[in-house]
Amino acid sequence: MTRRQRARLSRGIQYAVLVIVVAVIAFRADWGNLQQAFFNTEVIGRMFPRVLIVALVNTLLYTALAFVFGLLLGIVIALMRLSSVGPYRWLASAYVELFRGLPALLVLFFVAYGIPNAFPGFTLPFLVMVTVGLGLTAAAYMSETIRAGIQAVPRGQVEAARTLGMSPARTMVTIVLPQAFRIVIPPLTNEIILLTKDSSLVYVLGVTAGQVELTKFSRDMLNTTVNSTPLLIGGLLYLCITLPLSQLVRRLEIRHAKAR
Would the pTM of this model clear 0.85, i.e. be above it? Predict the structure, then answer.
């Protein structure tokens, strides 16, 4: 047999094994029991419309607020890490190492309960706690992405701007950052996907019925109905958010590769 024939035979065997495994699972599974446990139409009816107008909306809101806060803070941290002033670089490096090493759950907990204990009588609104708690961790990752994007901009762009008489600040804002963001848009979109999933940690703050996100809502419905259907519906709604974002990332990466 030639090499091509052996490769074709190997692929055929792999496909056949896959079909057999899928067929065995399909015939052996108790689909009626699965439908009752994970796709109970009565339970689904009890979830709507609150799962959309409360849980899904809150998930999107928490994600958007944390992303905007993390992006703004990430830009500041990235510029500090690139600064010629030593203390700025040290502070920024310490921030990145600290918040990249801490789980987002602990950061949320420290923001919600550490600040009121450190400053008695000072309390943060719920949305502010969510935004800061999730955004602090996201900013550590986004700052490194933005820093890499800034460093990827050709040095000649900066030199040309300075030759035209632009100040360092104006050069950074009008020349460097716009080009850097074209480079880092795909990884920043990935950060939105991670924040969407991290929003499920908001339960540690103690949420009310109007503040629940998808995971908390699904878990509460699971406890009420003693059925796994809410978890499946919650997972599908997460996929409705993350899958389009994943496709957007791929398209942006292809577009950026063509532009280069």
Answer: yes
